[in-house]
Amino acid sequence: MVRKAVFPVAGLGTRFLPATKAMPKEMLALVDKPLIQYTVEEALASGIEVAVFVTGRGKRALEDHFDRSWELEYKLEHSGKEDLLREVRKVSEMIEVIYVRQGMPLGLGHAVLRARNAVGNEPFAVILSDDIVDAETPCLKQLLEVYERFNAPVIALKRVPDEEVSRYGVVQGKLIEDRVFLIEDMVEKPSVDEAPSNYAVIGRYVLTPDVFDKLEKVEPGIGGEIQLTDALREMAKEGPFYGVVFEGEHFDCGNKLGFLKATVHFALKRQEFKMEFLDYLRTLVL
Ligand code: G1P
């Protein structure tokens, strides 16, 4: 049973400055819901019970978001705004959260290692809130189904064009069944020439606790950071390790264009202004 999901949320969000100068990037909203809430909801819908937030300086808003806000609730209650009150309460009761601090931003691998004690000796998920996936079956759930069949680590994969491989971890592997790869190797942010394939790692992982020992030993990699990919690469060389080409629409909200596309996508799913927004977009096309 995979009960816990680690959310590394200590990043500085420099790509979105000045918006992220005083606000965590995970609190940037698509329409009216912060990125972190999309991914926490995905975790819940996949059966996760506990979230481990690996946080850092300037991230208080994340803690407040998943906590009660009694002043706000009082106000909404007394002004008869029942719907909003329900929304606000729902978020605070959504999931149990454990907070650990990263201290120094030394890389994704370092962030995941910080969650070691909170996770304990059990399999767990890692979710990157930059990656938003809109899917009928939640992306993490698709991974968990493969994990349950093979009892080995599983990561999410997406085929990307050549010009995008250098933004991601990229895998080398064998397709063993529809959408499932047995992974042999992976490289963090390769150049097009070095990329072993066009299958990129997207921010969803189901991992076994032996990853922590690997992370303890991994040397700083690209960008001088402790890379999760480098630890996973060791695991893939030692034992079975799978990748799932998930179904669903993925938005890389770690970059501005991806974020804008996601905003339009989720706005068009909202019945209350879908038609009007579409009409507006059509005037732009003309
Ligand atoms: C991280 C991982 C990378 C992965 C990507 C997915 O990179 O290191 O392997 O492909 O997330 O979004 P980051 O986006 O943090 O630079």
Provide the fold topology.
Elements lengths: L3 E5 L20 E2 L2 E2 H11 L4 E6 L4 H6 L4 H9 L3 H12 L2 E6 L6 H7 L1 H4 L4 E4 L3 E4 L4 H12 L3 E6 L9 E9 L2 E9 L10 E9 L2 H8 L10 H11 L3 E4 L3 E4 L3 H12 L6 H12 L1
Parallel strand pairs: 1-4, 1-6, 4-5, 8-12
Antiparallel strand pairs: 2-3, 6-11, 7-13, 8-11, 9-10, 10-12
Helix pairs in contact: 3-4, 5-8, 5-9, 8-9
The site of 1-O-phosphono-alpha-D-glucopyranose has 15 residues, from strand 11 and helix 9.
Please name the defining characteristics of this protein.
286 residues, alpha/beta, Spore Coat Polysaccharide Biosynthesis Protein SpsA, Chain A, nine-stranded mixed sheet, two-stranded antiparallel ribbon, 13 strands, 24% strand, binds 1-O-phosphono-alpha-D-glucopyranose
Residues in helices, as a percent range:
25-40%
Q: What is the first-to-last residue Cα distance?
A: 52 Å
Spans of at least 5 consecutive residues whose pLDDT stays below 50 are: none
The quaternary state of the protein chains shown equals single chain
Can you say what the CATH homologous superfamily is? Spore Coat Polysaccharide Biosynthesis Protein SpsA, Chain A
Second-tier CATH architecture = Alpha-Beta Complex
Largest sheet: spatial strand order: 5-4-1-6-11-8-12-10-9
Tell how many strands the DSSP assignment holds.
13
**Rg from Cα:** 19 Å
What is the average per-residue confidence, as pLDDT, rounded to a whole number? 95
Q: What is the CATH top level name?
A: Alpha Beta
Tell me about the biggest sheet? Answer: 9 strands, mixed
